[in-house]
Amino acid sequence: MNQRFLSVILFAFIVSAIASFGLYKVVTSRMDANKAAPTTPIVAASKDLGLGTLLKAEDVKMIEWPGDVPPQAIRKMEDAIGRGIIGNMVAGEPILESRLAMRGAGAGMAAMIPKGMRAMAVRVNEVVGVAGFVVPGMRVDLIINAVPPSGAPPGAGNMAKILLQNIEILSAGQNIQKDAEGKPIPVPVVNILVTPDQAEVLSLVTNDARIQLVLRNPMDTEVAVTQGTSMGAILSSALGGKAPPPPSAGPMPKRAPAVTPRPAA
Asked: Which candidate, 56, 60, 62, 57, places its Cα nearest to that of 42?
């Protein structure tokens, strides 16, 4: 009887030892996982910041970033203060070099213009501005409608052609904030982002042609190849491919016979 009792006690001891060892391993593994990883101090936004904001001391703070530091992270507050941001930021977000304008560029729309690009104003109305849905951050094509210069096919009439494609809207009026909901904003002027060459072309056509903005999906970056069209071509197509005949001038009027004057008596 005593031997049987001792066997039960020994078996219970072994089972408890195995369970204790397993519990110990679980606890120690969790403790190792919860140990503080090495951190690196970097600069982050201390509050929500809007596009074009000029960073001040109260707008930034130092945080400890665990693990790998994000590429282009700024590690000194003085490297961020006094520079404009080119994208909205939320509180606690690390401030990256790519999200800041160049030092000395200031804030507002000027700070948002990438190097080598230009901002150009275009007058719009509800029709030209796609009923107010052209807001900052959207992409458009620009179509011109004008009378062709001399040398164009006779009877062509007004011609339309896509002049520029996939152009970014930098601001709608004085508003430079991107609207994720795409709410319509009626404005008289939009600023678009163009290259210097495009700015020269656009400067010429704004005086002699009517400009129409065509809204496009920002994910669609394919450049469409078009030949343009004219009023004459549209009317010719509507008439079955035959151009309308020129207006008839009618029969030429008959001239009265010449009368020879008689000599005086």
From this structure: 62
190 vs 180: CA distance, rounded Å: 18
Strands 60-66, 39-45: pairing kind: antiparallel
> Which of 132, 120, 137 has its CA nearest to residue 177?
137
Largest CA distance in the chain: 182
Q: Which pTM was predicted?
A: 0.59
| 61: β partners | 44
Task: For residue range 15-24, list pLDDT tens digits in order.
Answer: 777 877 777 7
Q: Measure the CA–CA gap between 260 and 37, rounded to whole angstroms.
A: 122
DSSP 174-202: TB----TT------SEEEEEE-HHHHHHH
- Token digits of residue 121: 């104003």
Q: Which residues of 228-241 are buried (b: 16+ CB within 10 A; e: fewer)?
A: eebebbeebeeeee
205-217 pLDDT per residue, tens: 887 788 888 888 8
